[in-house]
Amino acid sequence: MKKEMLSITDRFFLSVILLIAAVLRLWNLSSVPFMHDEFSALSRTVYDSFSELLQEGVMRNDSHPAGVQVFLYLMVRVVGWSEFWLKLPFAFMGIASVYLVFKIGQQWYNTNVGLVSAAFVSVSELFVFYSQLIRPYTPGLFFILLSVYFWNKILFGEKKASLLSCLGFAVSAFLSSQMHNFSLAEAGLIWLSGLFFLKKDDKARIKAYVLSGLAALLLFLPTSPIFYHQLFVRGGIGGWLPMPKYSFIIDFMNYSLNYSWLLVFTIIILIASPFLTDKINKNSKRGLRITALLWFVIPFLVAFLYSFVKEPILQFSTLIFGFPFLVITLFSFYEENTVSVKEKTIAVGAILIVGISSLILDRQYYKQVYTQAFDGVANAMKECQEKYGDSITFLSYADRSFMNEFYQNKENISNNIFYDQNVDLLDFQNDISKLDTKYLGIGLTDYHDIKLELLPLAYYPDIIDTKQWFTGKYLLLSKEKSNRDELKSLISNVKIKKGQAWACSNSMMLDTIDTDALGFIAEIQSVDTIHDILLAIELRNVKNDSLLFWNGGKSEGKVFLPNERTFLVNGLRLSDLNIDSQDVKLKVYIWNRGLDYVEVNNLFYYETKNDPYFLGIYEPLK
User: Where would I find the H helices in 44-162?
Assistant: First the structure.
């Protein structure tokens, strides 16, 4: 590949692209809060020794290679849990990745291809977002791109591959293997595909290429026990993700294009432009284009099939390592000398302007990312604490309580109680029933169980305010019931006689319910001792009378003494069911399995809709 000198104009375009990439990734970086996955990584930096870090923090409690975890382990010892200083190296690697996309596009084709490809990567939400996370995705992307940069030099560069290029490929391929399992797979795929570009008579280049691959393998071997343990001893590298939809690749493309039809239209026009103007790159490089496409397609197919055969592992971030090569390939038909400065300005300018506007205005990127669940809950509690003082109690739920504690401690929130994924619903209910403050502020994060929302409402029925962020919610509640109708009474003052098993049945067709989650709260009063009672929800297909879903929200063996007042709750998120709502009836009822004498004071119905930001970081803002 020839070495191209950049003109003053091209240097200007590249500088603008890199400046925009830097601003988008560094803008107010210290205000980007930690997410769940970042907290999870930080929780594994607290070990006393390096060996304990590898054994407990990586092999037994993580599904990623050790690279990023080791880096965070060292960084935390220098800067602590500082958002800015921990995120800064990842943001820099994101900016450097934009430059490497330009260089690879230039190496493979020409400067125009490199500029247009880099412009897209600089403004795509996929690359901006993961540049601001202290997770393996951007480091893996950076080292994959760096390995391809040296891969190009060894295969297509100078007559004799330099030692620097061989070492550069070996080290960057090894570092790729230490970031993420899919950047490991990508690095192996890249090296194997390079064998097809070697010429039999160029023995010096063959030797250099093979030795560089062997060097990367030798560097990897000492870390292979970690990979073996995670994949075969622990039994897999995923499992916590939902099953991917068949529309996954379309959703991924929409996300990468900022869910903007204008950006989609712009990219399509720019891809088609060389064909429409008959200025297509005559140098086909078919083998290189097919190879680059396979670098994206093969990892996607492997992850997709593995998700269905073994366990779910496919998410948007999985494809970040191969996606730049698809981008470069799609723009690869731009010729070098037939594109005028005006045309180049229009192409690069259109991507940057439409990309920035769609990211900031349409996607509300900075509004979404710069306030999220854990810090958002803490900020909401701070406002309520200043307003209500000692007359408010705070409850918080997260998969692990320290995630809420981190930001609430920063805001000096007092009178707060924390719960985690091991929460016992009976204990949770008992705690709420004993509260004597007039107000209750409850922060629910990590896509909480709807019952954790219903139980506070049973004792504090008035919703004064609601705030939502990505997978998080804050409710300000009051004990004094107002005229608001968040809780709708379905039935009241029903006596369930001794020996009666079923009561308070209510039904509705599922396709008439316009909500994301719904719940039911039964206020019951025991006349005799209640031994076994539950509030049940079922979904049934009315055409063939088949049961699609059943769940009983019961008291888990708790015995209620005579004249004791309590609440039963049950609910569900409709989006989790994956059920066609047509011809489906939802039924709620009380099942008095102990056949005791019970009075039902009220059966309430509660429905709640997610605002656009609840899932907006990954999904379109509806």
Answer: 50-52, 67-79, 83-108, 111-123, 125-131, 137-156
